[in-house]
UniProtKB/TrEMBL annotation:
This is Microcin C ABC transporter permease YejB. It comes from Parasedimentitalea marina. GO terms for biological process: microcin transport; transmembrane transport. NCBIfam families: PRK15133.1. GO terms for cellular component: plasma membrane.
Length: 361
């Protein structure tokens, strides 16, 4: 098992390299950049993308084909434009910039944000607890609710309880996470109905002055709605996955044999069926966590004004803050790959009969 884990960790390096290569290449073809952003602001445009929405021939592209200068920058000195390019490191060829970035990343130097004047590593460390907290709580709540509910649905398959809970689960799954988040805000966070939960943030302004118990309550009060919004889809999927997994195991011969030996129903279900049925549910843990952490974090953090990695990456993409974009992608990639390895370890913990090294052989 140790050799398998070592190989998985070594595979992280080429996987991350592939992620960075693809995203760096895509950035080269995306219109707009940090220099264009500054030019648009100086020219009073407010946003570089307004240049792509217009219909005039002078603003169809950000570079004029005849003068090779930035469109909209004709009133600015060429020396100023060159200084901006040097400041952002854009005066070098793309391939050279990519290898410089890889060398810096090898030393855990992610550079400095173009517009925030703070190191990317400090920014990521500042925002990461919010996103990880949201992702872990959402995944944990989804598992704590889905597994008991799925088991009960499997035991009472076809009953009235199974029918109405399935209808509720399908309805919950069909509602987009961002729409459910807005509904929660309107209903419970000062919309047209009740002011029960806070509208934004993860803690109150008086957080530092609260007692330990007060801090726990305040944190739970703030994170309740974001967790509810981000765990809805995962909750529905996990419940049905648990139910179907249990139904498949209950029909197998070893369950019939255990019952024939006189074992109680609880011992059959939780002593034999549970361990085998949970393998596929545990296998879905990385997908659940990654879907919440990657897909949900951007939308949920933006709607609930949570200052996390998802919102940071979104704002960096809009502003073309390349160091922050690549830094957050690097962190997202690391977390996703490590969570996959943790999932394999959980496989072995639940069922020691699994040997990944023999499977690979």
């Amino acid at each position: 098992m140790a050799a398998y884990i070592l190989r998985r960790f070594l595979l992280i390096i080429p996987t991350l390299l592939g992620i960075m290569v693809i995203n760096f290449a895509l950035v080269q073809f995306v219109p707009g950049g940090p220099v264009e952003q500054i030019i648009a602001e100086m020219q009073g445009g407010g946003d570089v993308f307004e240049g792509f929405a217009g219909g005039g021939s002078d603003v169809e592209t950000m570079r004029d084909s005849s003068t090779d200068s930035y469109a909209g920058a004709r009133g600015l000195p060429d020396e100023f434009i060159k200084e901006l390019e040097e400041q952002f490191g854009l005066d070098k060829p793309p391939l050279q910039r990519f290898f410089i970035m890889l060398g810096n990343y090898a030393r855990l130097d992610f550079g400095e944000s173009y517009f925030r004047k703070i190191s990317v590593l400090d920014l990521v460390l500042e925002k990461m607890p919010v996103s990880i907290s949201l992702g872990l709580w959402s995944t944990l709540i989804a598992y704590l609710v889905s597994i008991p509910l799925g088991i009960r649905k499997a035991i009472h398959d076809g009953s009235r309880f199974d029918t109405w809970t399935s209808a509720a689960i399908i309805a919950a799954y069909s509602i987009p996470g961002f729409l459910f988040a807005i509904v929660l805000l309107v209903l419970f966070a000062g919309g047209s109905y009740w002011q029960i939960f806070p509208l934004r943030g993860l803690t109150s302004d008086n957080w530092e002055s609260l007692s330990t118990y007060g801090k726990i309550v305040d944190y739970a009060w703030h994170i309740a709605l974001p967790v509810a919004a981000s765990s809805t889809a995962a909750f529905a999927t996990l419940t049905l996955l648990t139910k179907n997994s249990f139904l498949d195991e209950i029909k197998k011969q070893y369950v019939i044999t255990a019952r024939a030996k006189g074992l109680s129903e609880s011992k059959v279900l939780y002593g034999h069926v549970f361990r085998n049925a949970m393998l596929i549910v545990i296998a879905g843990f990385p997908a659940v966590f990654v879907s919440v952490f990657f897909g949900g974090s951007i939308i949920i953090e933006t709607i609930f004004s949570l200052d996390g990695l998802g919102r940071l990456g979104f704002e960096a993409a809009v502003a073309r803050d390349y160091p922050v974009i690549f830094g957050t992608l690097f962190v997202f990639g690391i977390l996703g790959l490590v969570v996959g390895i943790i999932s394999d370890l959980m496989y072995v913990l639940v069922d020691p009969r699994i040997d990944f090294e023999k499977r690979e052989g």
